[in-house]
Amino acid sequence: MRLLYWLYVLRALAFHKLLRYARHEGERTRHSAPALLWDAGMALLFHDVHPSDYFCLHFPDRPKSEVKTHANTLFMRRFHRRCNARHARGVFQDKLQFLETFSDFTKRSHVIISKDDRETFRQWLLRHRPAEIIVKTPFGTCGLGVMKLLLNYDPEPQLMPDQKAFDDFSSDLVAKGFGLAEECLVQHAELAMLNPSSVNTIRLVTILDSKCNPHILAAVLRVGVGKSVDNFHAGGIAILVDLETGMTKGSGFRMEPSDEEYFERHPLTQVRLTDCTIPYWREILLMVKEAAELVPGVGTVGWDVAVTPSGPCLIEGNDNWDKTIVEKALGRGIRQDLERFLSKAPTRNATVSPPPES
Predict the structure, then answer these.
(1) Do residues 252 and 216 touch, judged by C-beta distance below 8 A?
(2) Are 277 and 246 contacting, i.e. CB atoms less than 8 angstroms apart?
């Protein structure tokens, strides 16, 4: 397994990005880039630390002993496989299945975009007449495969008098892989003022214990930077949220090491990021705990939650949630936290039977 993991890492590694990280960290720590790359290689060889995590989590600054507390990528793969049954993961990997399964929590209308049924899409637009829509690829991750569209409506009671123009519009979306359209959410003013161009969401990680009671590991607010998405991997900023108070704490941060990595204020809006209070915090906690119990075969989920003027709603859930944003927010490794759950949690791939074939 470890050999396959190393081969996977080396095959997928963006070496030009890694070299940029090493040069930046070398200037900051006064170590040579080759020495840091060598140390990153040793961390991979002996502790399975992904080279990107070595730099993004600033292992050159940390005591060598802390490498054992890091939930490396190989450990996380085993953790997710242990907690989440293979047959149940599809609910979280297919955005349409997710919307249907968690319809009580999503609070927005959606429609399938299909080349074989353009009229359903057309009628949905005419019925709701949204000024903006979000189109998504069904299986996109990390903020990829998501696009916001502004719509113009004809004064007459139809979307486009030219049927061919609408057919071309929907066919173009299908050709680009977009198979799902959703209404745009109006976010709460307290979060909109941080960055109005994106819906700024909270990532909350839940884990079910041996009695299937949900626990929340951590919460992180993600804020966009001039883009229509807030994703951490798409250049967004993240900041830790205190689970007790619902207030942000510490500095905002980006994933990649750079000269503009940590922030007290948003770089565009200049709104202070620390000590922001998340509206409807108690309702958010209750919602994700209730949602975590809906799919028994999935024991751990990273939930993305938006907050509207009337309350919270789910954007999506991730069965293979990213540990980097959590560890960077907490300023420590989470391996021991996860191992405590693993020591008592059932192996859902072994204990949960798949549904009967239809």
Answers:
(1) no
(2) yes
- Alpha-carbon distance of 334 to 217, in angstroms, equals 9
171 domain residue, yes or no:
yes
Q: At what angle do helices 73-83 and 335-342 cross, to 10 degrees?
A: 30
Which region, left, alpha or beta, applies to residue 309 given φ > 0 means left and ψ of -120 to 50 means alpha? alpha
Helix (H) or strand (E) segment spanning residue 35: helix 33-47
Distance CA 194, CA 189 (A): 9
Is 134 found in the same domain as 91?
A: no
- The string of pLDDT tens digits covering residues 104-145 is 999 999 999 888 888 898 888 888 888 888 898 877 655 567
Q: Minimum mean pLDDT among 7-16, 44-53, 95-104, 116-125: which range?
A: 116-125
Single out the residue in 135, 166, 183 at which a domain terminates: 183
| Structural domain includes residue 329 | yes
- Rounded CA separation 311/61 (Å): 41
Mean pLDDT of 183-188: 92
For 74-91, the DSSP string reads: HHHHHHHHHHB-GGGTHH
Q: Do 179 and 323 belong to one domain?
A: no
pTM for this model (two decimals): 0.87
- Check whether residue 200 and residue 119 sit in a common domain: no
Phi, psi dihedrals of residue 25, rounded to the nearest 5°: -65, -30
Give the pLDDT confidence score for residue 130 in this predicted structure: 84
Percent of residues, the chain, with pLDDT higher than 70: 88
Residue bearing tokens 């637009």 = 125
Provide the 10 A C-beta neighbour count for residue 47.
16
Percent of the chain with pLDDT over 90: 61
Look up tokens 């429609």; give the residue: 111
Annotate 247-302 with DSSP letters as a single string.
BEEEEEE-SS-STT-EESB-TTT--B-TTPBPTTHHHHHHHHHHHHTS-TTB-EEE
Residue with tokens 């999503």: 106
Burial (CB < 10 A; 0-12, 13-18, 19+), residue 269, is middle
The pLDDT value given to residue 142: 56
